[in-house]
Amino acid sequence: MKTVEVVAAVITDRGSKKIFATQRGYGNYKGWWEFPGGKIEEGEQKRQALRREIKEELDTQIIIEKPLKTIEWDYPTFHLKMHCYIVRLASEGITLKEHSAAKWLSANDLDSVQWLPADLQLLPLIRDELE
What we know:
The protein is of the alpha+beta class. The protein is built from three helices and seven strands, in the order ββββαβββαα. The longest helix is centred in the middle third of the chain and has 13 residues, at 46-58. The N and C termini lie far apart (38 Å).
């Protein structure tokens, strides 16, 4: 089975104790929720890939605070290796370029959306971060 290696940003707002979630606007999992990010390009470092992906998807800059966890998950057609980071916004404003919707969620709201299976694995850690 092919392995796809990606990075994902758990964008936090410490003041409101919320995280930023995005809804996929395409593909087999259209309508499901995820943490923004994407594939690491050949020769690219993980943090570099994360900054690039967030700029491409959300047209914003981030500050990477720390690694959260690497999730490994088997989807029907590939194995996912997702490197997840806690980040915060470095600039004002977010523009959705690839997602159909987005929202800020508190720890109590995390279960209110349908998460992609791999992203769902992060929720206990995120609750700890937010509390």
